[in-house]
Amino acid sequence: MKNELTNDILKVLYTEDEIHQRVQELGAAIAEEFAGRRPLFVGILKGSVIFLADLIRACPLLCDLEMMAVSSYGNATASSGRVRINFDLQQDVRGRDLIIVEDILDSGNTLSFLKDYLNAKGAASITIVTLLDKPSGRQKAVTADYIGFTVPDAFVVGYGLDYAQLYRNLPCIGVLKPEVYQKT
Ligand code: PRP
Q1: What pLDDT score does 182 carry?
Q2: Mutate to test the pocket of ligand 1, among 42, 103, 143, 162 (most ligand atoms within 8 A of CB)
Q3: Is a pLDDT exceeding 60 seen at residue 75?
Q4: Is the CB–ligand 1 distance for residue 71 below 6 Å?
């Protein structure tokens, strides 16, 4: 369907149906691993919100939910590796099984920081779930335990992922037309 959101998409990488199917599979696998353990999901704002909302509903578990907001700072054009917490946990996570939920693992700076931070808070275990993994961007040696899709080195948006805060509400995941980000 053509609209002001889809007009800027060069090609669709994953349709709404394909994402739904994969999220159901991830949810079932996580539910099997954590059955009876009451894990605490930690969603990383803002990109993960749509994935998180679907994922936890695909996990028939007793579980808790927390959110964190973090951002990289320093050099604006390349990830500096330094991460700042803009919104922190609201409860003690000591001794808890944590499941970090991200939309994308790219350089690894964010998740490397979060793992260290949450380990220092006394988490019993940390499991990383990312909808997308972009191994070509990696600067830190971080791997995810659950990956939705491995993506090529392209500018992907939709299903929570933005460009300049837009396109998060696109139901599919697509590659942005270069002229969109070359304009700005
Ligand atoms: C994105 C994404 C991850 C991070 C991944 O967040 O949601 O948190 O970048 O990149 P990295 O592996 O290179 O650290 P972003 O800072 O764009 O904020 P957002 O979630 O609000 O879009």
Answers
A1: 86
A2: 103
A3: no
A4: yes
Q: Which fold has domain 16-153?
A: Rossmann fold (3.40.50)
Known catalytic membership, residue 116: no
> Is residue 79 in contact with ligand 1, taking CB distance under 6 Å?
yes
| pLDDT tier for residue 38 given thresholds of 50, 70 and 90 | very high
pLDDT tens string 83-114: 999 999 999 999 999 999 999 999 999 999 99
Transcribe the chain into DSSP letters: --STTGGGEEEEEE-HHHHHHHHHHHHHHHHHHHTTS--EEEEEETTTHHHHHHHHHT--S--EEEEEEEEEES-SSS--SEEEEEE--SS--TT-EEEEEEEEESSSHHHHHHHHHHHHTT-SEEEEEEEEE-GGG--S----SEEEEE--SS-EEBTTB-BTTB-TT-SSEEEEPHHHHHH-
Q: Is the CB–ligand 1 distance for residue 140 below 6 Å?
A: no
pTM over 0.85: yes
- For the chain, domain boundaries: 16-153
